[in-house]
Amino acid sequence: MGLWLLRVAFIASLTTAAYVTTPFYMSASSAALFGAVVGAVVILLEINIRRCSLKTLVGGLIGTGAGLVAALLVSLILRSLTFLSTNTAGFLQILSLLVFVYAGMVIGSTRGALFKFGFSSASDRLPEQRFAKLLDTSVIIDGRIGDLVETGFLEGEILVPEFVLRELQVIADSDDQTRRNRGRRGLDILQRLQKKAGIEVKIIEQDYPEIKQVDLKLIEMARELPAKIVTNDLNLNKVAQLRGVKVLNINELANAMKAVVLPGESMQVFIIKEGKEYNQGVAYLDDGTMVVIDNARRMIGRTVDIQVTSVLQTTAGKMIFGKFQSTAEGEKENELDRHRVSRL
Q1: Where are the domains of the chain?
Q2: Closest by CA position to 121, among listed 62, 57, 47, 66
Q3: pLDDT value, residue 126
Q4: Which residue has the higher pLDDT, 135 or 50?
C-alpha cells in the first residue's frame, strides 16, 4: 500500500508542476493533463522494469546502444544518397532509428540472461539455502510450516504473496465450517510467525493480473525473485519442477524424517485396533506410520514387542509389517479360534 501511495504522490506532484509551469506554451488544463499522462507512463515503466532481472536490463541497454550505432551508420549512408529528397531521407533516418533501437532493445533484453557479466546479483552470491521461501496456500493451511520455521530449518526470508493472502481470506470466510477453521488457522500461524523474534515474514504486493491461477502466479514470482516454493501440493510440485522452479515439499520432508526400520529388527508398539486380515492388529508410530502385526488381535489395548517382517513404501507413505511372538497360551487360543472358524 505504501508503494502505491508514493506512486500517486509522484503523479500528483508532476501534474501540479506542469499546471504551474505550463510548458510548451500549453494552457494550464492541458499542461496538467500532460503531466498526469507523463507520470502514468513513468509509473508503468517502473512497474515493468521492477519485474526484470538485472541481466535483462543490462542486456536491453547493450541492445539499445547497438541499435543506435546501426541507426547512425544508416543515417550517414542516407545522407550520401543525392537522389533522395530531403523529406524522404529524413523519414528513412527516423524509421531506421526506431527500427534498430527497438530491435536492439528487444533482442538484448531477451538474450540478456545468456550474457556473462563481471558482476553477480545478490541472489547469485547467496548460498542456495539462503534463497527466499515462497509459501503457498496449502502449506499455510496445513499448519506444520509454523513449527518448521520456528526450528530454524528454513533459512532466508519467508515471503507470502498478497494473492495467497486473498485466497486464504476467502477460505477463512467460507460457509463450510471445516474450510473456515483451516483458513483461520492459517491466518493465526502467519500472525504467530510475524511476532516471533528472529523470523522475517514479508508480504509481497506484486501481482500478475494477466495470470488467473494462483499456482502459476507463484511459479512466475519464484522465477523472477528467485525463490523456492514451499508447498505440500503434489500438482504444484510437478508443474514448478517442469518450469525449472525449485520446490520444498513438506510431505516429502515428513516421509524422509520417518524412522528407518529394517526386516528382522524388534520394536515396541501399542495395538489400537483389529486389522483387515484374520488375527491381525494395527498400531501407529509417532510419525503416523501404520504397523500391521500378525497374531496380535488379542493384544488390542496393550503395548507389545514385535519383530519386523517387511517394509512397504507406497505413494501414501510407508507401511510396516511385523509379527507378535505370542505366548504358548496365546498360541493355544489362536488355534481354538481357527477351529471355530473352520467349523463355521
Answers
A1: 2-114, 123-256, 266-343
A2: 57
A3: 41
A4: 135
Same fold, 123-256 and 266-343: no
User: Sign of the C-alpha dihedral, residues 120, 203, 249, 247?
Assistant: negative
Q: Quick one: CA torsion of 293, 294, 296, 297, rounded to 10 degrees?
A: 110
Kindly indicate the confidence band of residue 121, based on its pLDDT and cuts at 50, 70 and 90: very low
Distance of CA 283 to the CA centre of its chain: 36
CATH code for the domain defined by 123-256: 3.40.50.1010
Q: What is the mean pLDDT of the chain?
A: 81
Please say whether the structural domain 266-343 has been given the CATH code 2.60.40: no
116 or 267, which is more confident? 267
**pTM exceeds 0.70 for this model:** no
Residues 106-119: tens digit of each pLDDT: 787 766 655 555 44
Q: What is the DSSP letter of 154?
A: S
242 by Cβ neighbours in 10 Å (0-12 / 13-18 / 19+) ranks as exposed
The 3-class SS string of 34-91 reads: HHHHHHHHHHHHHHHHHCCCHHHHHHHHHHHHHHHHHHHHHHHHHHCCCCCCHHHHHH
Strand partners, 318: 313
Report whether 308 contacts 267 (CB < 8 A).
Answer: yes
The more confident residue out of 342 and 264 is: 264
End-to-end Cα, the chain, rounded Å? 75
